[in-house]
Write a structure and sequence with these properties.
Length: 277
């Protein structure tokens, strides 16, 4: 069992849980993730480790409540516990040792780029983070990323920071020059747009793919993605890949495979939850 020691609501549908997991905290590296199971019989959910505290033996999970299982997780509070947390899984981020990196985060992806920005800054790399949300209340991890370098905040409605999408701010940075690598994490359309934007500039672009995962070891094949025309598995070959080689259309199609089932499961959970309360 993994007790929850802290719970913070970061945005209307994004929750941060700090959870006891000392063995994972000890060896986790930036870019790695865990697979979480709330309780017996529950769905297995892949979540990036947004931060760790080795002394306290905790890991930080940032969860966007979309379907039934993520709503169940975010309904937990301090004193509750998560039954299973398996990890760390996946390959660690290949970090620059010098130069200038731009970390682009969209929505909950901002929490995913946070450990990457942290590690880059520790290496002495200049870090510029570009983060976005629909409006101010949807912007997360701004303060944490400022500890690693400059931050450009974008909102769709202009209620905070720069008016517009993160890709517009990224384009300005690309045109200014001097970028050695871009790390982009967020919704598939955002990562695809960032990758296409950087391509003509010849800027290496790394994306973290949120493919469907079940076992996290490559055995089930559920997280299969096409990279440069070849099949790879996001859980063990990734989750990070060269954005210029990812077949984003196939990834989007696979992510939509179970959308109707997920919606039906959520509606049943919401109805049962409302009846219980």
């Amino acid at each position: 069992m993994h007790p929850i020691v802290s719970r913070t609501q970061l945005s209307p549908n994004v929750t941060r849980l700090v959870v006891q997991a000392p063995r994972i905290a000890e060896i986790r590296q930036p870019g790695q993730f865990v697979i979480v199971r709330r309780g017996p019989g529950a769905e297995r959910i892949p979540l990036t480790i947004a931060d760790v505290d080795k002394v306290a033996g905790t890991i930080t999970l940032v969860i966007q409540a979309i379907g039934k299982s993520t709503h169940e997780l975010t309904s937990l509070g301090v004193g509750d516990a998560i039954t299973d947390i398996a990890g760390p899984l996946g390959k660690p981020t290949e970090l620059l040792e010098s130069g200038h990196a731009v970390c682009v985060g969209g929505g909950v992806g901002t929490a995913v780029v946070h450990p990457i920005a942290q590690a880059l800054a520790r290496n002495g790399v200049k870090v510029t983070s570009v983060i976005g949300g629909r409006s101010k209340e949807w912007v997360i991890y701004e303060d944490e990323l400022r500890a690693a370098g400059d931050v450009v905040v974008c909102t769709d409605d202009g209620s905070y920071g720069r008016h517009g999408f993160v890709t517009e701010a990224l384009k300005d940075l690309c045109e200014a020059g001097g970028i050695d690598e871009v790390f982009a994490v967020g919704p598939v359309p955002m990562m695809r747009a960032c990758s296409e934007l950087t391509r003509p500039y010849g800027i290496k672009t790394t994306v973290s793919l949120n493919a469907i995962m079940v076992d996290g070891t490559g055995m089930c094949g559920g997280c299969r993605v096409s990279i440069d025309g070849k099949s790879q598995y996001a859980c063990c070959d990734g989750p990070e890949f060269d954005g210029h080689k990812v077949d984003f259309r196939q990834l989007a199609d696979r992510l939509n495979t179970y959308r109707d089932f997920e919606q039906a499961a959520l509606e049943r959970w919401q109805a049962a939850h409302a009846e219980a309360h």
